[in-house]
Write a structure and sequence with these properties.
It contains 13 helices and twelve strands. By secondary structure, the protein is of the alpha/beta class.
């Protein structure tokens, strides 16, 4: 039996996608006889909470607490650390000397300072950028294994001698798949579901919706969820005078799949400059739901190539006219599909297959790392 120490800001039962992934891996490790210890710092994944109005202060204090908890935790065989809050790998690398001989395994969900530079939050070439980038490079060199989400992320963290494993996020568990009743008439509905964060494109969606509304078409755009950019998107929708743009809260986990099946098309976005810095977790489920998928993001790279190969729509930010045209085609009479019970069976089978494959691949990488010489 080996002891794994999992360190991340969000740990079970927090609703954050990273927390859910950690919980599922921990459960699988426990079934194989391993012990898992979680170290986290609850701060509300969906709550927008800050400390005295300062996000930096909140995250800085969270880093200190996670460093201290890791440094004082019982010794382990492997430390698996993720990326929240920003620069967590540096703090855990500093604390890992307490666990002499333990494997250092970085499961990269976001890359810092890369994503902060891409979003304009940190100036490229600034002292902060140079110092944090150098520190992160040292962490990568010190790792026994780095788990990344796609080939673009692998290219960003690839340093000589470091073992890399690509494991895309797998879809969440689904306790119930309820087939929504067919909608008789009514508008065509396209849905953005999940966190609307700084790395996600939304202007192209709203501009496309404006074009459709200017033509008087019965096509509704729905944003389901929250996120740092939701308020700005709502303000822009108001400026455009949109009447058929609607806003919902996050769907409960038990109703998430039903809400996706209740739409006529799904849309997932990512700002191209953040490619390789993160991976939109909502894509894992959207890809296997039998609904047309619209991708607005980088038109090169692994995500776009995969979706294009599956016959989905791939568009760049700013291509609102092309997006509107695609929606006109999808909403044409006779093109809207319904979902039957056989579709629900296929969906459940695909869900379980992808979830099992994802967990098994990650567990295999962790166990192999334990059996390999340090630094190999």
């Amino acid at each position: 039996m080996s002891r794994f120490l999992f360190v991340n800001q969000f740990i079970p039962p927090d609703p954050a996608p990273t927390s859910r992934l950690l919980g599922e891996v921990a459960e699988a490790l426990a079934k194989r006889g391993h012990e898992v210890v979680f170290i986290g710092h609850r701060s509300g994944y969906r709550g927008k909470k800050t400390l005295l109005g300062s996000r930096a202060l909140r995250e800085g204090l969270a880093l200190l607490r996670l460093w201290w908890k890791t440094a004082t935790a019982p010794r382990c065989d492997a430390i698996v650390f993720l990326t929240s809050p920003p620069l967590l790998p540096i703090a855990i690398w500093a604390a890992s000397f307490r666990h002499r001989g333990a494997k250092r395994i970085h499961w990269a969900m976001d890359l810092y300072p890369d994503v902060a530079v891409a979003l304009g939050e940190v100036r490229e070439g600034s002292l902060l950028h140079r110092v944090t980038a150098r520190a992160m490079e040292s962490v990568y060199h010190a790792c026994d294994l780095i788990i990344v989400l796609d080939p673009e992320m692998a290219a960003r963290v690839s340093h000589g001698g470091v073992r890399l494993e690509i494991v895309p996020p797998w879809p969440p568990p689904v306790a119930r798949i309820e087939i929504p009743p067919p909608r008789e008439g009514g508008p065509f509905l396209w849905l953005y579901s999940g966190n609307l964060g700084r790395a996600h494109e939304w202007r192209t969606l709203l501009e496309a919706q404006r074009l459709l509304e200017d033509e008087g078409l019965e096509i509704d755009l729905v944003f389901q969820g929250g996120g740092a950019e939701r308020e700005a998107a709502q303000d822009h929708a108001t400026e455009l005078g949109l009447k058929r743009c609607h806003w919902r809260d996050y769907a409960p986990e038990t109703e998430l799949v039903s809400s996706l099946l209740g739409a006529d098309a799904l849309v997932v976005t990512q700002r191209p400059e953040t490619a390789g810095c993160l991976w939109p977790s909502k894509l894992a489920l959207a890809r296997i739901v039998e609904r047309p998928l619209l991708w607005v993001g980088a038109t090169g790279g692994s995500i776009a190539l995969t979706l294009d190969g599956e016959g989905e729509t791939v568009l760049a930010p700013g291509e609102s006219a092309r997006l509107a045209e695609r929606l006109r085609i999808l909403a044409a009479p006779g093109r809207v599909s319904t979902v039957g019970q056989d579709s629900a069976t296929r969906l459940r089978q695909r869900l379980e297959q992808q979830r099992s494959q994802g967990v098994e691949k990650l567990i295999g990488a962790l166990e192999h790392s334990l059996g390999a010489p340090a630094g190999s």
